[in-house]
Amino acid sequence: MRASQFVILGLGRFGSSVGQELMEIGCEVLGVDRDEEKVDEFAGSLTHTVVADATDEEVLRSVGVRNFDCGVVAIGDDIQASILAAILLKELGVKQVVAKAVTELHGRVLERIGVDRVVYPERDMGIRVAHQLTSPNLLDF
Ligand code: ATP
Prior knowledge:
This is TrkA family potassium uptake protein. The chain is α/β, with parallel strands linked by helices. Helices cover about 45% and strands about 20% of the residues. It has a six-stranded parallel β-sheet, sandwiched between helices. Helix 1 links the parallel strand 1 and strand 2. The site of adenosine-5'-triphosphate has 20 residues, from helix 1 and strand 2. Adenosine-5'-triphosphate binds next to helix 1 and strand 2.
């Protein structure tokens, strides 16, 4: 059985963490970032890395995103880039698209354009920590 293949757009704290954990689990990961320094930083720990603009349709086509099992849009601050990258992944036929949202409204837009799963890393981690702090016997939430 072949390893699951993931493409991660944006190698900031969130994207790089998702990518590296997927590698630990045994998946194949292509990391894309427009910042060459980020790509250099993670080139050794991901299967493949590319310096590119994730909102460039031709780039996404040329790296063959449609062949990946899942695409993760890990761009937050630039909401426009996040939305463009997400819609391109959907249109190019990526089966499962996950995107990080920085605000509730950003998340609603991502849902509207067909993103399969929207995550709110800061909010979700805040909820998790609150539960851990009040339930000392709960190992994980
Ligand atoms: P994190 O909290 O995960 O560090 P952030 O929300 O603080 O992320 P962002 O501005 O979302 O930071 O950037 C995350 C990564 O996405 C950065 O490494 C940035 O270079 C990259 N990035 C942003 N826009 C694009 C784009 N259009 N194409 C490719 N990479 C991008």
